[in-house]
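Please fill in the sequence for the structure shown.

STRUCTURE ENCODING:
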């Protein structure tokens, strides 16, 4: 015998907080979260500029550009002191964490791992180009872009993905079209499966 689901319950499940397009937080909470994310982005931008765009005339004889991925990372790993290795590798990774944490909250269109990677790589590539051409004592290093982007990925996977989903409505993907059709017809794929299985059991008893 087929199991039926009350229409009110079905409608509630279809239009619940997990449905695409439904904001999980109240309006004031979303505004507060975006305000905090904006403030964090401003602080991060100032810190990023101070760390990467301040001239350093004393370092000019020691700097050189690196266009080959992995060369600077190998140099970091070959440092005699482990502390220096952690400082170079960890510092660049930590510098990318805010991208992965703040972008999904501040820019809804930037949600998604690929978009976070693309946005972070583009921004840090511009920073490295500015270092290489405009800032004394700084040089372009492709490995810094890779490490910063790795930090953004970690920040997104650890926190940013959840924050983005908590603040903004879920994005509508192409597969939601099929789910929407089933819901508009008054049924869900799970209910169709229950009905079919119930129909097969009823047919078996009839025979």
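FILLED IN BY: designer on duty
SEQUENCE:
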């Amino acid at each position: 015998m087929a199991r039926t689901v009350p229409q009110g319950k079905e409608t509630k499940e279809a239009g619940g907080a997990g449905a695409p397009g439904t904001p999980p937080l109240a309006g004031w909470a979303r505004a507060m979260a975006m305000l905090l994310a904006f403030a964090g982005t401003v602080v991060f931008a100032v810190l990023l500029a101070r760390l990467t765009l301040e001239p350093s005339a004393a370092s000019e004889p020691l700097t050189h550009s690196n266009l080959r991925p992995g060369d600077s990372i190998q140099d970091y790993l070959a440092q005699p002191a482990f502390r220096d290795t952690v400082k170079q590798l960890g510092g660049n990774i930590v510098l990318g964490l805010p991208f992965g944490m703040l972008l999904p909250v501040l820019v809804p269109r930037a949600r998604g791992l690929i978009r976070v990677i693309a946005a972070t790589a583009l921004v840090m590539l511009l920073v490295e180009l500015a270092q290489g051409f405009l800032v004394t004592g700084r040089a372009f290093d492709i490995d810094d872009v890779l490490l910063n982007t790795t930090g953004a990925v970690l920040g997104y996977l650890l926190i940013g993905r959840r924050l983005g989903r908590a603040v903004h409505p879920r994005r509508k993907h192409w597969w939601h079209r099929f789910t929407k059709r089933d819901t508009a017809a008054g049924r869900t794929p799970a209910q169709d499966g229950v009905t079919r299985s119930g129909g097969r059991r009823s047919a078996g008893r009839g025979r």
